[in-house]
Design goal:
The chain starts with a strand and ends with a helix. The protein is of the alpha+beta class. The model has no long low-confidence stretch (mean pLDDT 87). Strand 2 and strand 3 form a beta hairpin.
């Protein structure tokens, strides 16, 4: 496994990404630290159940707010400020 300087990495970006795509770990040295360029698959991007629950709740809150905006535009409920909406989130 080769360690690249930041300059070498920058000068060979495409080759570095190609190597990472083939499963190789590309190491980059910056000052006294090492960083790794690795390919991440879709399986690595999945959310835990707790994270998914938080996303679902955020989506519900945004949908409720959007519904209220539409109701305000239609004159069905009193108009409120954007700050009031943010405070509700």
């Amino acid at each position: 496994m080769e360690v690249l300087s930041v300059r070498d990495y920058r000068n060979n970006l495409a080759a570095s990404f190609d190597r990472a795509s083939e499963g190789e770990r590309v190491l980059i040295r910056r000052k006294n630290s090492l960083y790794a360029l690795v390919r991440i698959g879709n399986e690595d991007l999945s959310l835990s159940q707790a994270q998914q629950n938080r996303v679902d709740e955020a989506v519900k809150s945004i949908r409720r707010s959007w519904k209220q905006v539409k109701q305000m535009e239609a004159g069905e409920i009193p108009v409120k400020s954007a700050r009031a909406f943010i405070d509700e989130l």
